[in-house]
Amino acid sequence: MTTLAIPSSRELPLYENGQSWYGKDLQQRTDWIHELSDDEQREVHQAVARAIAGEVDLVAMKAEDFPLATLGARLKVIGHDLKHGRGFALIRGLDTMELTLVEKAYAFRGVGAHFGEAVSQNAKGHVLGHVANLGLDYSDPTTRGYQTPAELRFHTDAADIVGLMCIRGARSGGLSRIASSTTVWNEAVRRRPDLAAELLRSYSFTRWGEVRPGQRPYFHIPLFHAHEGRMIAVFVAGAIEKGQALPGVEPLEPRQRDAIAFVNELASEDGIRLDMAFQPGDMQFLCNHSILHSRTSYEDWPEPERRRHLLRLWLACPDGPSLPDYMTTEFQGRTVSGRPDGIRLPGVELKANLYPD
Ligand SMILES: [Fe+2]
After folding, report:
1. 158, 159, 156, 138: which is closest to 147 by C-alpha?
2. Residue 249 Cα to ligand 1 middle (Å)
3. 3 alpha carbon to ligand 1 midpoint, in Å?
């Protein structure tokens, strides 16, 4: 009988690099919060007014359409840190009190354009997503976690960068939690190398029915994969569990289930994770290749107009980190610039809706 050779902990590499950080070291620091100065805020407001007056298309908007004379240079530094450093940033302090929802969407999309191009987040071609409680039943197989107030486990989204802008927070709860997937990998190697080895294997993730012609209804890729000095993670436990029902998908072995649960356990751990409480106007940007994110459950106000509402962007970054081939072959397609292109179905036009539909 042959047995699968599981590398010993000495054979599994640790990645002590710019992507590995511990929440306990950052929770007390504020250098990951980029508070906008009055001048920078004015610049954003002016760029919004100019883009709206010039009828700039929210879908195709580029950095040139949203010129930021001084903040632009700062966003370059933040963008580099997002893609090649610790992988996250919170841009705080935009006074949104006097902005309409359209103006807020332009501000967010405009700042995001300085990091990358917007790609589709679903089969409907939405480049402006809405994270809100739509009153849907989570037990319905088509309902996604971000459309409910339920706690979300740690996961990655499907683009180089995911951005969230807080329009309104919840009555209570709804804390954003992030963790370095590189640190999670390192800790898995240190504590349970047997489970870390399982994370290197390929798993089948459902495409949630959002399937391109010629594609299987699932994609089959490693959860963690070493590539050019970095550990690249794609981790969505819910999509792997849902994938189990699809024909052709191998049943998960108990140790694979243990490995998946261990990732969420490590990422949730005090000391590893970093918590952020969003304030209206906050813009959070994360690099999915090196950051896992989750959210605590929340309770809304009863009035629909007071409910928690976040805008979401998925960005493809031509200057993003080098990625293994499966990211733009098996997992997703590729943009003209060669980056993962989100959830793109043929014949579906990209659109930026201001309200969830
Ligand atoms: Fe997400």
Report:
1. 138
2. 24
3. 36
Give pTM, 2 decimals: 0.94
Distance 312 CA to ligand 1 centre (A): 9
Cα of 98 vs centre of ligand 1, distance in Å, is 29
In angstroms, what is the span from residue 146 Cα to ligand 1's centroid?
A: 7
CA of 156 to the centre of ligand 1 (A): 6
Closest CA to 47 of 72, 65, 60: 65
Q: Which residues surround ligand 1, an ion (CB under 5 A)?
A: 157
Tokens of 116: 């990358």
Q: pLDDT tens, position by position, for the chain (357 residues)? A: 444 454 555 589 999 999 999 999 999 898 999 999 999 999 999 999 999 999 999 999 999 999 999 999 999 999 999 999 999 999 999 988 889 999 999 999 999 999 999 999 999 999 999 988 877 766 776 677 778 888 999 999 999 999 999 999 999 999 999 999 999 999 999 999 999 999 999 999 999 999 999 899 999 999 999 999 999 999 999 999 999 999 999 999 999 999 999 999 999 999 999 999 999 999 999 999 999 999 999 999 988 888 999 999 999 999 999 999 999 999 999 999 999 999 999 999 999 998 877
Give me the domains of the chain, ranges plus CATH numbers.
32-328 (3.60.130.10)
Kindly give the distance from the C-alpha atom of residue 61 to the centroid of ligand 1, in angstroms, as a whole number: 23
Ligand 1 mean position, distance from CA 147 (Å): 11
